[in-house]
Backbone:
């Protein structure tokens, strides 16, 4: 499978995705990689350990998370993402539900958008179609707010 001129997944074997959370409330790493140098170092370690692609996010999706504004999400991504896309040697996916962040991420070189809301924002599909990248849609029941 190719997106934006990049072969996304290895053929004939299971692909390994490295997860890089740039959030202070990450359930998997406890916010260890907030500093750009720490994030880039960890990303390179994951690639050296065999990651076939990297998924990076600046917005928490853990159960009970409090969403941050798009500007905060972008502030977490802006230094790390372009360097990852240039130097890590594997496709980079950005985990976001924001069409604005998706557009910025694609401009910065991301090959995929990983939208856990299932493209709930109508503009997301238009952003993705503009560059013909892959949109991974996954629906999380815990992500959807239910009426009280």
Residues:
């Amino acid at each position: 499978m190719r997106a934006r001129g990049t072969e996304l997944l290895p053929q004939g074997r299971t692909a390994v995705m490295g997860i890089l959370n740039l959030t202070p409330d990450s359930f998997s790493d406890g916010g260890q990689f907030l500093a750009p140098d720490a994030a880039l170092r960890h990303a390179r370690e994951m690639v050296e350990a065999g990651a076939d692609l990297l998924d990076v996010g600046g917005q928490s999706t853990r159960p009970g998370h409090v969403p941050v504004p798009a500007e905060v999400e972008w502030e977490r991504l802006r230094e790390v993402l372009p360097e990852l896309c240039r130097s890590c040697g594997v496709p980079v996916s950005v985990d976001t539900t924001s069409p604005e962040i998706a557009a910025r991420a694609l401009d910065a070189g991301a090959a995929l958008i990983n939208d856990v809301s299932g493209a709930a924002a109508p503009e997301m599909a238009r952003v993705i179609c503009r560059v013909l990248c892959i949109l991974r849609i996954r629906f999380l029941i815990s992500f959807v707010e239910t009426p009280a």
About this structure: The helical segments are 36-48, 70-77, 80-87, 99-107, 122-131. Residues 97 and 141 are 15 Å apart (CA to CA). Residues 141-148 have pLDDT under 50 and may be disordered. Residues 36-48 form the longest helix (13 residues).
